[in-house]
Design brief:
The chain has 12 helices and 10 strands. Helix content is 47%, strand content 13%. A hairpin with a 2-residue loop joins β5 and β6. α4 packs across α5 and α10 crosses α11. With 288 residues, it is of the alpha/beta class. It has 2 domains: 119 residues, Glutathione S-transferase Yfyf (Class Pi), Chain A, domain 2, CATH 1.20.1050.140; 156 residues, no CATH class. The two termini are 19 Å apart. It has a 4-stranded parallel beta sheet, with helices on both faces.
C-alpha cells in the first residue's frame, strides 16, 4: 500500500517526534509514503474555526497540488485534528452549495481540481495492514519485563483520539465507544491495556496548546486553565487504573499531559510518580 502524506506546518516544527514515530510505524507495517511539498499552510485550527472561506481556500490549494503531483487517491493525515479538517473540506467541496465558491477559488488559483482524494487516518491504515496474522508475524519483542520465568506485561492506558473516529457513519475507522484498533495491537505486542474511562476522551486540541509567539501570555494563561480542567479527570483515571504508561495518537494531548501532569497530581493529592506518556506508535515500534 502507498499513501500520500499531508504534513502540518506546525507539526513539522513543533511535533517532530510525532511525525517520525508515525513514519517509522508505517514503514514497519509495510506502508510506503510520499510527502507532497510546497504547502503554503494546512488550513488548520484558526482558519478552520473562524472563517470557512479561508478554511476551504487553504485546503483546496493543497488538494490541487497533491492531485497534480501524485497518482495516489489516498491522502493520509497523521494529525487527528487536521484529519477532521481535510475530511470535512473534501466532503464540502463535493456539495452543490459550495460549487460556486469552489469554482471561483480554482479559477483564482489557476490549478485544476478533480476531487479524487479520500482522507484516511492512522487507524484506517493499521486496520487494513494488520488483519489476521499479518501483525503477529512482525513482532520480535514483547512490551513488558521478563522476571525469571514470568513475563510481566506493561500496563498501558490506551487513548484513541475521538477526532479519528467521529462521525462513525462516515469515518468507519474504529468504533467511537469501543475503539479496538490500537488496543488490539498493543495486546498482541504483549502489553496489557488497563480498563479506564478516558480511552476516547477529548484532550483539548488547540485549547491546551501553548503558543511561543510574543504577546501570547493571555492566550497561554487561558490554555493552561482549559488544560487543567480537561486533563484532570484523565490523569486521575490513569492513576486509578494503575497504568504504567499513557499511550495516545494526539500530539497536542501528549504535550499537554506531559506539561501539566505533575501540577494536576499535586492538585488532586496523588502521591505516585508521574505516568510517562508516549505515542501509541512508539510502543508498537518497540515491539517490531
Amino acid at each position: 500500500m502507498k499513501v500520500t502524506i499531508i504534513k502540518s506546518g506546525m507539526l513539522s516544527s513543533v511535533y517532530k517526534n510525532f511525525e517520525s514515530s508515525i513514519s517509522v510505524c508505517l514503514r514497519q507495517l509495510g506502508i510506503d509514503d510520499e510527502t507532497i511539498q510546497n504547502w503554503s499552510d494546512t488550513g488548520e485550527e484558526g482558519p478552520y474555526l473562524t472563517d470557512e472561506t479561508k478554511f476551504l481556500a487553504y485546503t483546496l490549494r493543497n488538494l490541487c497540488i497533491a492531485e497534480k503531483t501524485t497518482r495516489n487517491d489516498k491522502l493520509f493525515v497523521a494529525d487527528p485534528l487536521l484529519y477532521q479538517v481535510y475530511r470535512k473540506a473534501i466532503s464540502r467541496l463535493q456539495e452543490s452549495q459550495y460549487k460556486k465558491i469552489k469554482e471561483n477559488m480554482v479559477k483564482s488559483l489557476g490549478i485544476d481540481y478533480v476531487g479524487r482524494f479520500k482522507a484516511v487516518n492512522i487507524l484506517h491504515l493499521m486496520k487494513a495492514q494488520t488483519g489476521g496474522k499479518k501483525f503477529d508475524r512482525l513482532i520480535i519483542r514483547k512490551l513488558g519485563n521478563d522476571r525469571g520465568e514470568k513475563f510481566d506485561p506493561l500496563r498501558i492506558a490506551v487513548h484513541t483520539p475521538p477526532e479519528l473516529m467521529r462521525p462513525m457513519s462516515k469515518v468507519q475507522s474504529d468504533h467511537p465507544d469501543n475503539p479496538f484498533v490500537i488496543s488490539s495491537l498493543i495486546e498482541k505486542s504483549g502489553g496489557k491495556c488497563v480498563k479506564w474511562g478516558s480511552f476516547n476522551r477529548w484532550l483539548g486540541g488547540y485549547l491546551t496548546t501553548e503558543l511561543k509567539k510574543h504577546g501570547s501570555n493571555k492566550f497561554n494563561s487561558l490554555s493552561k486553565e482549559y488544560a487543567l480542567k480537561i486533563l484532570s479527570p484523565i490523569i486521575e483515571d490513569a492513576h486509578e487504573g494503575n497504568a504504567e504508561v499513557i499511550a495516545t495518537l494526539d500530539p497536542r494531548g501528549l504535550e499537554a499531559i506531559d506539561k501539566y501532569q505533575e501540577e494536576i497530581m499535586k492538585n488532586l493529592g496523588i502521591n505516585n510518580d508521574p505516568i510517562p506518556v508516549m505515542y501509541s506508535t512508539d510502543l508498537i515500534n518497540i515491539s517490531l
